Amino acid sequence: MGVKASISGIGLWTPANTITNEELVESYNSWAEEYNRKNKEAIQNGALESKPFSSAEFIQKASGIKQRYVYEKEGVLDIARMRPKIAVRDDVQLSHQAEIAVNAAKAALESARKTSNDIDLVIVACAYTQRSYPAIAIEVQAELGIKGHAFDMLVACSSATFGLQRAVDSISAGSSKGVLVINPELTSPQVNYEDRDSHFIFGDVATALVVEPGSEVVSDHAFEVLGVQCVTEYSNNIRSNFGYITHATDEDPYANDKLFHQNGRKVFKEVCPMAAAHIEGHIHSLNIQSDAVNRWWLHQANINMNTLIIKRLLGRDAAAEEAPIVLDEYANTASAGSIIALAKHHVDMPSGALAVLCSFGAGYSIGSLILRKH
């Protein structure tokens, strides 16, 4: 059977800067107005399409998002720039992404009542890393003084749950004594703030979890991992083509297709039934019925997706405390969304309570964990 793994520490780091829907819309609409004015003749000739305008009401209705946190606010709302202005750091300085990862990791270690000596594997699992190598995880490992090994894992919005599967497997096999799974989601540099349909979706955050043998848990709030399942199915409906190969293809490395883009309607139509079927199959494989689950920490991309998935699982709408929503405050934070929901909504759960942690996103990729409160 192997060693039983538990999640014993939860860390959440939130940036100081916020951007409300109203701020974002004011900036985008000003940019769109200027674009349409500058390209009036081409638009009239049919060579270009005019840019549509947006509203805060449209954003909230379409997504449930009211605001987002950003690592660096400067530049995002500047219609002459439309992207964050992040200061360059030289190679001897801690990278921006490693810094936010370390912040979340320290919080998780404190929550677990552990030190760096209790960890021998660090997994940085997120949608984007700011460089290819050396791995951000190894940089974080060095900063925290952890002995062992570390690596980065990129599976888009399912990175956190896929990283947790690797952590649980390492604990169960006895190859690791303690694992830090960190999700430093620095998404704002990959947002196309000139696209009405996606400029509001993402926010920045960092989360972290400590995974260790259940017998070693000393924290106040911990969860035994009853099962982990991951699945992927190829789709082009969520995509980012940014990469080093543009140096050889002579393309614009920051063209629209190199930033986040998606076919939102297809994603909604295809992912919702996939995610519901995956979760249902997972809990049933453990002889658990949906109505026995006390808490659902789902991926935080779109409130309408979460509402539909939960309704398919329960046959009814879920109460707010059953399936917590954090995307109104944080927006879509890629793989970190379900971890934020866990971080903010777990202390009230009694011993023995069951929970589902699930993510779904580009790939397509879906990952889920079935958990029981210590």
Describe this structure in words.
With 374 residues, the chain is an alpha+beta fold. It has helices at 21-38, 40-44, 56-63, 96-112, 136-144, 159-173, 246-249, 264-285, 303-314, 327-330, 337-344, and strands at 5-13, 17-20, 67-70, 121-125, 149-153, 179-185, 205-213, 223-232, 238-239, 261-262, 295-298, 354-361, 365-373. The strands form three sheets. It has a nine-stranded mixed β-sheet, sandwiched between helices. Strands 2-3 form a two-stranded antiparallel sheet. Helix 4 (96-112) crosses helix 5. The protein is globular, with a radius of gyration of 21 Å. The model has no long low-confidence stretch (mean pLDDT 97).
Decide which structural class fits the backbone: alpha+beta
DSSP strand count: 13
Structure annotation, total helices: 11
Low-confidence stretches: none
The largest sheet is:
9 strands, mixed
